[in-house]
TrEMBL record:
Highest taxon of the lineage: Bacteria
Protein's name in the database: Transposase IS30-like HTH domain-containing protein
GO molecular function terms noted in the UniProt entry: transposase activity
Transposase IS30-like HTH domain boundaries: 4-44
GO BP terms in the entry: transposition
Pfam families listed in its UniProt record: HTH_38 (PF13936)
InterPro entries assigned: IS30-like_HTH (IPR025246), Transposase-Integrase (IPR051917)
GO annotation, cellular component aspect: cytosol
Length: 112
């Protein structure tokens, strides 16, 4: 009972056994998952449990995992302008806003 990731086949079995009135504990033991995993899976949808909808919900949530992109539309437009119009290299764009590259007051004061 170490894994908690359910396959589509597991979801079909859960749907079938749940519709037949089997207990959560029975379904969990049958599939080799914890009772909590089965309970959470049955709570995934706001309506009656359907394996296909649950799988779609799972895939959508998996695709939304991870770090969100910091590339906004305005930043993308700025980068495209610098590279295509002003003929900057990608390195120039990447370092254009770092204090070391732009010569901040802090860096100038150290030199003086």
């Amino acid at each position: 009972m170490s894994t908690t990731i359910l396959s589509f086949q597991h979801r079909v079995v859960i749907e079938t056994l749940h519709s037949e009135g089997c207990s959560l504990r029975y379904i969990a033991n049958y599939l080799g998952f914890s009772t909590t995993t089965i309970f959470n899976e049955l709570q995934r949808l706001n309506s009656e449990y359907q394996a296909e909808l649950a799988q779609t919900d799972f895939e959508q949530k998996v695709s939304q995992r991870g770090r969100k992109s910091s590339l906004t539309k305005s930043l993308k437009h700025l980068i495209e302008e610098k590279i295509q119009v002003q003929k900057w290299s990608p390195e120039q764009v990447a370092h254009a806003y770092s204090p070391h590259e732009r010569g901040s007051n802090e860096n100038r004061n150290r030199v003086l």
